[in-house]
Automatic annotation (TrEMBL):
Species classification: Bacteria, Pseudomonadati, Bacteroidota, Sphingobacteriia, Sphingobacteriales
Limits of the Probable sensor domain: 25-122
Any one Pfam family match given in the protein's UniProt record, by short name: DACNV
Name the UniProt record assigns to this protein: Probable sensor domain-containing protein
InterPro entries: DACNV
Species whose genome carries this gene: Mucilaginibacter gracilis
Domain of life according to the entry: Bacteria
Amino acid sequence: MSEFKTPNDLAAFVFSELNRSKIQDAKPSEEILREIFNTLYYTSLQTEEGQFIKVTVTLLDHNSTAKGKVLAYDDWAFYPFKPAIEFTVKNLVKLSKAADPWSSSLAVYYNDQGELFINGMIDQTIHYQSFLNYEREEKPAHPGIFQTMINGIGILNVMLDYQPIASLNQNSLVKHYPNVFGIGPISEYLKRNIQYNHSFFEELIEEKLSESDVDICNRLVLDYTIQSISRILLKIKNYHHGGAVLITKDFKKDLNVKYQLGYDRIEQAIMHILKAITDEEFLDDEVRNLRRAGSDMPIKLHRDYLATEDEIDESYNELIGAIRFTSSLSCVDGLVLMSPNLKVKGFGTVITEKEQPPYIRVNKNATPGTRITKISPSHFGTRHQSMFAYCYKHPDSLGFVVSQDGEIRAIKCVEGEVMMWENIKVYQFIKSNKMPKLPLPPKPPRK
């Protein structure tokens, strides 16, 4: 059994991380952090008008923040309450209805006596959330010392800029988010199964390509595929009903597909993005050559350039729409069935295979190593057990299960053993430059 963790444990860990950080602002005491996290934790257990509470709180020194000071039109700004509001569960519950985490954050700070107050609101947080959810490419400015999000009952996520510090997931403290899409068996599975040949890309782009060009195209397709899987899982998480996605190449064995569907819009959108990006690069080369020669840009080239920019926007929007469409299929009981290149083959799918593996290996790291716990499949619910059974019998498959509490797990059979990764990295996290690099482990002595 894992050790039971509380908001005080989260406060102790965040305090140690802030102390070793390069943050220039005054760093809060552990006592203040305990009050923040305990208050937010008990707020997460409440409801307002029958709805669970979701709110984001930013620890912001409002005294050094000028009202309405904006660096860009879409930059965040702080707007104070007059007077400031006491930082309590009751007030957080009430204000949560007006502070949707996608649009705003509550600015919280403490006085000389260590008393916490909600001093105002921060707007334009939609751009921060959009970046985390892969719906914006440019990283927007970010306010405050750190922020804490209530993402479910007893679930608190603490962020420093775009880097997660830690999460309290009900009674467990999460410090690591394995990047299964970047390294390890899941990454290798996707790389192996999402490969397009030379002639395919030349026909798509309508240009002669080198082997290096084809490699770049395949890497771009892989990147957008990984982003798409992450975004689908995040959308399912936000529905708060749980769900599952099965990626496989056999759509009949051990499966009962209630609603068969041939939906290939995600793959199409990724190819449209790739073609539009490469068209823009070719046009960029032509424009640079004209500038070097001191020539004016022909009207046709200018029109082509503008049309390509429109195509890029349209293809990105197409991908957003296709991801939302696919995610909504999870609202029907049963899993969403997909191919490795994300063609939807059906939904409302039930796994008919029943034989369970003798055990599950739970990984803390993306690559199987020393940080592994061996556990019985019976420890999990029917949704997980079905995925265990299928992946055990069909090793060339990949499963994702989203629990009702928002936990996202990846499941893959590796060398005859079913492995599961918890708390996988699905947001667009970026390491904060305010955190020093961890020292490398000492080299083992030579024998």
